[in-house]
Every structure is written in C-alpha cells, then in structure tokens.
Design a protein that fits this description.
mainly alpha; 140 residues; rod-shaped; 0% strand
C-alpha cells in the first residue's frame, strides 16, 4: 500500500526533495556571501585606514614640521583598524592587535629621528596590509 502511494506520488516526492535541498543550499550560499561581503568591506575600510596611517607616519618621520605628521591624530586610525578587525578572521584580528602594540611602543619616537621606531611601525603596517589582502583573496 505505501509502496503504491510512493510510486503514484514519486514526482511530487522528488520535487519536494529538490525544493528543500535547493532552499537549504540557497540559504547557506546567501549566508556565506554575506559573511564574505562583510569581510571584504571591513578589509577595504582597514586598507584605507592603513594608508592614512602610513601617510601620517611618513610625515612624522621625514617632515617633522608638517602638521600632517601629528602622531596623536593617528591614534584614531589605529583604534579604528583594531575595532573593525573584529569583523575579520582571527589572523587579521591578531595582526591588528600587533599593530596596536607596535604603535603604542614606537609612535612617540617617530619624530625623534629614530629609524628603528619608524621601521617597526612601517613593517607592522605592511604586514597588516598583506594579511588583509591574503584574507580577501582567500574568500570564495
């Protein structure tokens, strides 16, 4: 009896299975796409903040008389990078924490003609950029 009903309604049962699996896949794909979009948007925002931070660092190091090299104004960029990193994978979050640590230890010495401080900050910015680019490229 049940076998007969399954045979009579095979098209309907197959259609139901296809519809449910399509709905499940579509939901999963939309969630993955949204997560990737969030990661990309956060990454591009962070890259912009890093570029602005790098500009301040360059002025602070090589043109101490220029207002654009005020390292106090750079704190907002460093903190924004750290805050937005929470929308990124753990590797980027870790790199943002490292950038904050390097900035805390070296920002006061950028205008004092100390190449070591400049190189540490510049390297940390470059590593952060590389981590973001690698993360964005790995999205599917």
């Amino acid at each position: 009896m049940i076998l007969k009903q399954v045979k009579q309604n095979a098209v309907a049962i197959i259609s139901l299975v296809v519809a449910l699996s399509s709905l499940g896949y579509n939901t999963w794909r939309n969630e993955a796409s949204e997560a990737n979009k969030t990661t990309r948007d956060a990454g591009f925002f962070m890259m912009q903040e890093l570029s602005e931070l790098q500009e301040i660092v360059l002025y602070a190091r090589f043109d101490q008389n220029d207002q654009r090299g005020d390292t106090k104004s750079a704190w907002s960029h460093v903190l924004a990078i750290k805050d937005v990193s929470y929308a990124m994978p753990e590797n980027v979050q870790h790199q943002a924490q490292e950038l904050l640590r390097v900035w805390q230890e070296n920002s006061d010495n950028l205008q004092a003609d100390e190449d070591a401080s400049y190189q540490k900050v510049d390297q940390s910015i470059d590593e952060m950029k590389l981590e973001i680019v690698t993360t964005i490229q790995s999205l599917k």
